[in-house]
Write a structure and sequence with these properties.
single chain, mainly alpha, Tetracycline Repressor, domain 2, 78% helix, Protoheme IX farnesyltransferase, transmembrane
């Protein structure tokens, strides 16, 4: 029987670290979108996107409670630790999902509200319930869920979807495989014990490292799209080139690692760098947009 859940357990269900990146990319999508939005409405929109992301996390933990119980990095989550019943997480996630979608639709427009609903559905049903346990391509296809938020932010302002929003989606989408596969390389035993077919456990380390390098090359190329589409300037371009070079260097180092210890060290380095890469890239895009709108350049 589960013990009495604490406030911090409900907060843990929301996956706040994942939520923070979702909120930030959505915020950037909203601020760089053409047009304007009332600050209060904008705050409500960002709050709804955050709540929707948290709802996805809660539903993910509800469904994945069995495998969370056998993985070292997830064993202390509220459900496997016995502090919360799975049914509580389910109800919590469903209520937050409905609330966030309805409020976003009413506060902004139903393109944004509907897209947020689709994002939650994609993460919970398509990724968590279907892809995660069935294919080593789980994180490739499922990564789309984490790439949708800037498009939701864009739609909250414009009521439409656009190529600019898709470019932001593509950057996050292509970033996801090397980010998570680098983690999987030095956490293989965890994923193996849980029966999750992550790429290193299915095709081996050599093939995984080769695919990480390939995705990294395409990612860095895709990071130039904001320049080619005309909604970013030299500030973003300089940062994208510099950090893209760093990403590629770490991917090449991982690809060339021959010994197991060196491979795991290189995988951890790439994973750590990838955490800051996406944040810095979107921060540069925000700074570039701010400077341009203020007429400082």
């Amino acid at each position: 029987m589960a013990g009495e859940a604490r406030v911090e357990d409900y907060l843990a269900l929301l996956k706040p670290r994942v939520m923070s990146l979702v909120v930030f990319t959505a915020f950037v999508g909203m601020l760089i979108a053409p047009g304007s939005i009332n600050p209060i409405i904008g705050f409500i929109a960002i709050a709804c996107i955050a709540i929707g992301a948290g709802a996805s996390g809660a539903l993910n933990m509800w469904y994945d409670a069995d495998i969370d119980a056998v993985m070292s990095r997830t064993i202390n989550r509220p459900i496997p630790a016995g502090r919360m019943a799975a049914s509580e997480a389910l109800v919590f996630g469903v209520v937050l999902s409905v609330f966030s979608v309805m409020l976003l639709g009413l506060a902004t427009n139903w393109v944004a509200g509907g897209f947020l609903a689709f994002t939650i559905f994609f993460y919970v049903v398509v990724y968590t319930m279907w892809l995660k346990r069935s294919t080593p391509q789980n994180i490739v296809i499922g990564g789309a869920a984490g790439a949708f938020p800037p498009m939701v932010g864009w739609a909250a302002v414009t009521g439409t979807l656009s190529w600019e929003g898709f470019a932001l989606f593509l950057i996050i989408f292509l970033w996801t495989p090397p980010h998570f596969w680098a983690l999987a390389l030095y956490k293989q035993s965890d994923y193996g014990a849980a029966g999750i077919p992550m790429m290193p456990n299915v095709v081996g380390e050599v093939s995984t490292r080769r695919q990480i390098l390939a995705y990294s090359v395409v990612l860095v190329a895709a990071s130039m799209l904001p320049l080619f589409l005309g909604f970013a300037g030299w500030i973003y371009g300089a940062v994208a080139i510099a950090f893209g070079a760093g990403f590629l260097w770490l991917a090449v180092r991982l690809w060339r690692a021959s010994e197991s210890v060196a491979m795991r060290k290189a995988a951890r380095s790439l994973f750590t760098f990838s955490l800051s890469y996406l944040f810095v890239l979107f921060l540069a895009l925000l700074a570039d947009t701010f400077v341009t709108k203020m007429g400082l350049l």
